[in-house]
Specification:
Helix content: 10-25%
Radius of gyration: 20 Å
Oligomer: single chain
Largest sheet: 6 strands, mixed
Number of helices: 8
Strand content: 25-35%
Strand order of the largest sheet: 10-11-12-9-3-13
Structural class: alpha+beta
Shape: globular
Order of helices and strands: HEEHEEHEEEHEEHEEEHEHHEEEEEE
């Protein structure tokens, strides 16, 4: 089956981007270099095409009740414009997907899901919609999405795109009418820096991309540095740090699972995991060497396998070789010495916090 393409595909090709498959789409991995693009977002401003992400709307009398049923976070009585991060779970606590839920209005929600999971997630949502008076719509083909990220993002979105955004606080959004286009603008991102995500129809997204690139104030960035940026600040990627076998409790994301709210799918399993502990836990590991730990590499203790790396890099912002790894809980204490097997050699590492670099959000 052929990969899908976003509405900006031709623009990536014109800019000479390296294109590779990701989540069922042909996506730009880098334009200049991952290091250059990464540093642009940390120091100035970068723009990402994230139109491959999925969008689902939930409306109707039971919308709040339904969202609370399928989602680990608690949307009860939230103000319009509030955004929540959390997960959809299987009964056993494994993760269907992690996602953002936007409260658009009374019984009106906008849900953003991962590209590789769109079909699975929508089927899951439909399967669990029975008995709820809601209208569920998959709008993934309608929306394009830009992520404008970095310390200069606010000024770029206001001046270059003419969108009022400075009043938005972190994890809030709003709808805006611009040149006849209905947009959703939110102060969110996946980089650990201040930034905005803008959802609109394909024509608007193409025009906005052109303006941002032409301004010279916003570097085009690929999925390569999107991964290095999110990794450094300890943000999970579905398929690596969360999966059907990795629960939010194992991943250290229990704060996004409100166990004091009424029943939600997977709640019982999480309550049990919190009470009894889990066999494995996600940790950070810092290597003493410059060698780079990659996804799937074994983590050892005294020569015995105790887990494996989920994501690893030589961190661009800290100049250290670090990784996140799912390992046996017995060895998950901060300061524990472990080894990572890289090809035929083993390298000594220390268990550290999963956040290798401090986030710079505008609160």
């Amino acid at each position: 089956m052929e990969n899908k393409r976003t509405c900006l595909y031709d623009k990536h090709v014109a800019l000479g981007a390296l294109i590779q498959p990701f989540g069922g789409f042909d996506m730009p991995i880098q334009y200049s270099s991952i290091i250059e693009e990464h540093n642009a977002v940390r120091q100035h401003c970068g723009v990402f095409d994230v139109s491959h992400m999925g969008e689902v709307t939930v409306k109707g009398p039971d919308a709040e009740k339904y969202v609370n049923h399928i989602f680990t976070n608690d949307v009860t009585g939230a103000a319009d414009g509030k955004i929540f991060y959390g997960m959809m779970l299987y009964q056993d606590g494994g993760t269907v997907d992690d996602m953002l839920v936007y409260k658009m209005g009374t019984n009106n929600y906008f849900i953003v899901i991962n590209a590789s999971n769109i079909d699975k997630d929508v089927a899951w949502m439909q399967q669990h919609a029975e008995g709820f008076d809601i209208e569920l719509r998959n709008c993934s083909d309608y929306y394009g999405q830009l992520a404008v990220q970095g310390p200069e993002a606010e000024s770029v979105v206001e001046k270059v795109l003419g969108l009022d955004c400075k009043e938005l606080v972190f994890y809030t959004g709003k709808t805006e009418e611009k040149d006849g286009h209905e947009l959703i603008v939110s102060r969110t991102g996946y980089t650990g820096e201040d930034g905005f995500e803008i959802y609109g129809d394909h024509d608007y997204i193409r025009a906005a991309w052109d303006k941002l690139i032409a301004s010279g104030r916003c570097k085009p960035c690929g999925l390569g540095c999107r991964d290095t940026l999110r990794f450094e600040v300890g943000l999970p990627l579905y398929g690596d740090e969360l999966s059907e076998n990795i629960s939010p409790v194992m991943a250290g994301l229990g704060m996004f699972c409100k166990l004091d709210k009424p029943e939600f799918i997977g709640k019982e399993a999480l309550v049990k995991q919190k009470a009894e502990g889990t066999v494995q836990k996600l940790v950070g590991i810092e290597l003493k060497d410059k060698a780079i730990p990659r996804h799937g590499y074994e983590v050892l203790k005294d020569g015995k396998k105790i887990g494996e790396v989920t994501t690893g890099y030589h961190s661009i912002s800290t100049d250290k070789s670090v990784c996140m790894a799912l390992i046996d809980t017995a060895y998950a204490k901060l300061g524990t010495e472990v080894e990572v097997k890289i090809r035929k050699k083993t390298f000594v590492g220390t268990v550290v916090k999963k956040r290798f670099y401090d986030k710079h959000y505008k609160k």
